[in-house]
Amino acid sequence: MIECKNLTKIYKNGDAETVVLNNVSFVIADGEFIAIMGPSGSGKSTLMHLIGALDTPTSGSYFLDGQDISKLSDDELADIRKNKIGFVFQSFNLLARATVLRNVALPLVYAGVPKEKREETARQALFQTGMEEKRFKHLSNQLSGGQMQRVAIARALVNNPSLILADEPTGNLDTKTGEIVLKTFENLNQKGRTIMVLSPIKFFYLKLAKIILFDFCQIWLILKIIF
């Protein structure tokens, strides 16, 4: 479960202060599918950095699975990112000259997992995204945009994280391909994954549990969807 209490982030430059996140509070239950929506500069990317343990708040607290992440050291934050959070980015961030399987297995290399187990775990993660097995040996630069994003999603899954964070994952894709990628997230959520997607304000056809609307560095509205 995610619980944010009065999260605030302020950047200082001499005597000048810039508030980029202002007193944000919300709760996300395990297995929920949430969209964080808002215009550019609204504070949603800063929130993702805090939720993803990439940064710490100026004030307030952030609990992930009962642990106060806002008070951890840099090394402890790195362990949280490695073990509990999977990231999916708009630009894919794949190794162009590496195979699909190697790209997905890369986090397991850093985790010290033996080669045979790495490959099998990577294969299972790819199957979860609907990637065809015949693509596993292809180089990532031989794939379409939608296929590359599926590889990126599989890489985020490979360490079995409790939370998937996706930062505008369809931003570089056409509408049809973007819908396929978002459907992949929906399928993963139906299997119990907690997923948070950041997006500009737009209509989502997905079965979301919550939509959190951001503007002016704070939450404007939280919509809970009932099906």
TrEMBL record:
Where do the ABC transporter domain residues begin and end? 2-225
Decide whether keyword Cell membrane is in the record.
no
According to UniProt, the name of this protein is: ABC transporter domain-containing protein
On whether Phosphoprotein is a keyword of this UniProt record, the answer is no
**Source taxon at top rank:** Bacteria
Q: Which Pfam families match?
A: ABC_tran (PF00005)
Keywords (A to Z) from UniProt: ATP-binding, Nucleotide-binding, Transport
| Recorded GO CC terms | membrane protein complex; plasma membrane
Which Gene Ontology terms cover its molecular function? Answer: ATP binding; ATP hydrolysis activity; transmembrane transporter activity
Which InterPro entries does the UniProt entry name for this protein? Answer: AAA+_ATPase, ABC_transporter-like_ATP-bd, ABC_transporter-like_CS, ABC_transpr_LolD-like, MacB-like_ATP-bd, P-loop_NTPase
